[in-house]
Design a protein that fits this description.
The complex is a heterodimer of chains A (115) and B (113). Chain A has 115 residues and is mostly beta strands. Helix content of chain A is 0%, strand content 50%. Chain A is globular. Chain B is globular, with a radius of gyration of 13 Å. Chain B is built from no helices and 12 strands. Classes of the chains: A mainly beta (115), B mainly beta (113).
Chain lengths: 115, 113
């Protein structure tokens, strides 16, 4: 079975631009979460989506938004990019919100560099 | 607030020896889940081991085991018979609601031949 897949793997954007990152969860998984990992730090929670609804949001500005589609794939959008948005963006999937403690599986991430 | 602290930024161990990585956490929840993830240079987060807080028995996965001390809010990872492929960043993580997972800052482990 395919794991969590993310695209693109690497991208470079200019300050002020917009970026869209994509994620496909493991088949059968209904919950998708997004994390930002700045170099040298642990991942920080951005969003969780379950059944196409936002179920949790971390301490990130409104420039960050996301959505989940009927097939449970997800997009993370970041507007008005800042240099500080440069990071590895990780997508993670799990069976579902009600299954607390179910293992969360991560994709390989999307490396975003803002110049 | 839910926080996870890893106090060892870097550690090294000789191949075939044993190493223990430390992790402490803070929470007011009574039921929660703890994880150790490995992140090699490829950057993919790989689950090493998980522990359910209501289970007193320490989790074990082959060469990896944990020492879970609930009262002390401590969750250390022991790697036995260390292998070169164990070289990676190791993150301790915590969740109680599946809405979000809190990670520590990580410990960089180097296994030396």
């Amino acid at each position: 079975d395919a794991g969590v897949t993310q695209s693109p793997t690497h991208l470079i954007k200019t300050r002020g631009q917009h970026v869209t990152l994509r994620c496909s969860p493991i088949s059968g998984h209904k919950s998708v979460s997004w994390y930002q990992q700045v170099l040298g730090q642990g991942p920080q929670f951005i969003f969780q989506y379950y059944e196409k609804e936002e179920r949790g949001r971390g301490n990130f500005p409104d420039r960050f938004s996301a959505r989940q589609f009927p097939n449970y794939s997800s997009e993370l959008n970041v507007n008005a990019l800042l240099l500080g948005d440069s990071a590895l963006y990780l997508c993670a999937s799990s069976l579902g919100r009600e299954n607390v403690g179910n293992t969360i599986y991560f994709g390989e991430g999307s490396w975003l560099t803002v110049v | 607030a839910q926080t996870v602290t890893q106090s060892q930024p870097e550690m090294s161990v000789q191949e075939a020896e044993t190493v223990t990585l430390s992790c402490t956490y803070d929470t007011s929840e009574s039921n929660y889940y703890l994880f150790w993830y490995k992140q090699p240079p490829s950057r993919q987060m790989i689950l090493v081991i998980r522990q359910e807080a209501y289970k007193q028995q320490n989790a074990t996965e082959n060469r990896f085991s944990v020492n879970f001390q609930k009262a002390a809010k401590s969750f250390s990872l022991k790697i036995s018979d260390s292998q070169l492929g164990d070289t990676a960043m190791y993150f301790c993580a915590f969740t109680y609601n599946n809405n979000d997972m809190r990670f520590g800052a990580g410990t960089r482990l180097t296994v030396k031949p």
